[in-house]
Amino acid sequence: MSLRHPLRHLACAPFIGLLLIGGCAPLEWHKTGSSSAITVDADEAKCRVTARSEARQRMPLQPIPVPQIIIDQQGRSIPVQTRQPDSERFALEQNLLQRCMTDLGYTLQPKPSPANH
């Protein structure tokens, strides 16, 4: 495998993330029979605290790994972080939050545009 291959993916990652975020419609939690934004916010806050706590128990904070050093085609040393230490825990936290909200009867639905109000 050439050294260019990992660099190409690293260079494109921020742009791919922006495309994915920008291409998605904003979502909001909705519960049939509940229209109070205060209730939704309170339930989401409780679920977020519970999810964060459980994610930290399952995946304690890890020290930041030492970056690998690779040499590019021009002979320059480039430090490359092999993984983000908190990204896996963040993904778990988001899954736990979604499960908690779903268990309370909520679903994620596209947020209505201001023109529809």
Report on the architecture of this protein.
The protein is of the alpha+beta class and 117 residues long. The chain has a domain at 29-108. It is built from 3 helices and 4 strands, in the order H-E-H-E-E-H-E. It is elongated, with a radius of gyration of 20 Å.
Quick recap:
This protein is an alpha+beta fold and 117 residues long. It has 3 helices and 4 strands.
Main features:
117 residues, two-stranded antiparallel sheet, disordered N terminus, 3 helices, alpha+beta
Helix/strand-derived category reads alpha+beta
For the biggest sheet, the summary is:
2 strands, antiparallel
Distance between the termini: 54 Å
Estimated radius of gyration? 20 Å
Number of strands: 4
- Beta-strand share of residues: 5-15%
User: Low-confidence spans: pLDDT under 50, at least 5 residues?
Assistant: 1-10, 14-22
Binned, the helix content reads 40-55%
- What string, H for helix and E for strand, traces the elements in order? HEHEEHE
Widest sheet: strand order?
1-4
Q: What sort of overall outline do the alpha carbons produce when their principal axes are compared?
A: elongated
**What's the helix count?**
3
Question: Mean pLDDT score, rounded?
Answer: 76
